[in-house]
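Handout for the seminar on molecular recognition.
Each group receives one record of this type.
Step one: identify the two inputs.
Step two: read the structure output and locate the region that could contact adenosine-5'-triphosphate.
Step three: write two sentences on what you found, then compare them with the reference statements printed after the record.
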Amino acid sequence: MRDESYQAFHRRSIEQPEAFWAEQAQAIHWHKPPRTILDYSRPPFRKWFAGGETNLCYNAIDRHLDERGDQLALVAISSETGQTVELSYRELHREVNTFAAVLKSLDVGRGDRVVIYMPNMAEAVFAMLACARIGAVHSVVFGGFAAHNLALRIDDATPKLLICADAGMRGGKVIAYKPLVDAACEEAQSPPPHVLVVGRGLDPDHAIVAGRDLDYATLRARHDGEQVAVEWLESNEPSYLLYTSGTTGKPKGVQRDVGGYAVALALSMWSIYDIRAGQVMFSTSDVGWAVGHSYNVYGPLIAGATSVLYEGLPTNPDPGIWWRICEQYGVRTMFSSPTGIRVLKKQDTAWLKKHDLSQLRWLFLAGEPLDEPTAHWITDGIGKTIIDNYWQTETGWPVLSLMPGLDLQPVKFGSPGLPTPGYHLRVIDEATGLDAGPNEKGVLVIVPPLPPGCMTTVWNDDARFLSSYFSHFKELLYSSLDWAIRDDDGYTFILGRTDDVINVAGHRLGTREIEESVASYSGVAEAAVIGVHDELKGQVPVVFATLKPSGEQNPALAAAAMQQCVVRQLGALARPARVYVVNALPKTRSGKLLRRSIQALAEDRDPGDLSTLDDPAALDEVRRALDRGA
Ligand code: ATP
Ligand code: MG
């Protein structure tokens, strides 16, 4: 099977989906085999592996105990606290069982929701796996979110329990979590009856609400070493909830299943990430994001690999920290984001050369467009193959990628590559609703049924699932809400969000195309391009950019150079009408540019839902720049 070419493998997944996925399903343990591989009786809702019974925690841990009980399962490194925790599969099994016993003692069981609000620490992983073990539905809320966001997610999930750390740390500063939890519980309509606090000794004097708050260390001591039986779940029961980044509006609560997710992850681990049992994967993501769920926790463990988790900045204690981790643990596949790499790009390139990266084979980057200059910089810098992969919280695993585990298809800079197995993709012309031709722009869609691993619905809101994703075309198609182009070789290029398209005098331009061009000017660190209303042309492109410390510092000269790049590469039509040089760009907590808010300010409108904004100061920067004028 693994001698099959990518092309043949993908074709088979589309032409004979049931046979294909039945075969992939053999990679995981089923307590009871599926009755039906695909139940598609209620489109676009679908059930993979209906009637089958399995468990994510069993597949991630128990199944490996005989063969690799003493192998490292999880390494949690914190450059903030200076601590590293290493656990073998056997040790992880013990911790997760203990955690599960604590959950059970609090009357948490199958189908109950548990909100987890913790930084990237080992206990966050224990908590997730413990929920999975007993069939509780976790909803991990990224630790950087403020009380209000947490309250919104509490009310959406109506949890029986909230698990938090006393504090996180960022850049050496302690960030107390517990007061945020207290405030969120106060604000929420349906606060959890219990809050379980995992103390790290960072904020030992936090307030305790009697009768509600519980100390994990105390309960852990009471239940240490207890074994908790695995709860066998029907393949389509919910495993967890996770919210999208909120880049385009109010975040959507993605609901994931059990069996389909496990099967998709197992397939992706070897075919995309080229990781087999015993090998090491290091993802720099936070457990609070989709990447963290799939490739810091469930994917590597289901594969019997070692997962490396990291808490800290990419530049702390120095900008070589990621590469030192790769050297120390013999990382084979690393996973990060373009934002992360752009942070390093502002540092001396020598940091990329300091460590022995002979074990490292691949660096995967996902989450937002990987601009070509950044891709070249990191490819040359570490001398490894950089693989851009495209996916969404909704899909749970890559939609577009190269698949070195099958055979390495050629890298095309600027493109996340080819459809991964099970994804039947089309590019649809918005005006006609028909397929766009090669090299023609359109909306990237997935032909349903969505493959295993993708969301089953929006939590508690089937109507939003249908209206958000399936209501855009006459045909029943899942809209990615991203704009794309497919070249003659079948490589897809993502041009930006469908609502980020700029319409200049009737010509439709992707923000991504212009950003890419602006970033090709060597003085630019990062750029956001938005369309601003214009009486004459409908819309004009406007640039907000940050400069590299090493390049041109005169804003007017830098702006002129950026405009020249765009005119030269894309034509006079795309010429940015204005260029604003700023010190920071507003982003979501997951590191995505908040173009809609920049655009709103530029058009003198309300910036909209800012619940996932990372740094309010960056939005003030934009306001000030607009007041100042370009
Ligand atoms: P929301 O859906 O709430 O507006 P979001 O779309 O940013 O937020 P995520 O699921 O975190 O939430 O991000 C998925 C989106 O990120 C994709 O739809 C796409 O726009 C962008 N993206 C992810 N990977 C890539 C990539 N490799 N290249 C280009 N864009 C990417
Ligand atoms: Mg989205």
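Reference statements: The CA atoms of residues 182 and 357 lie 44 Å apart. The mean pLDDT is 95.
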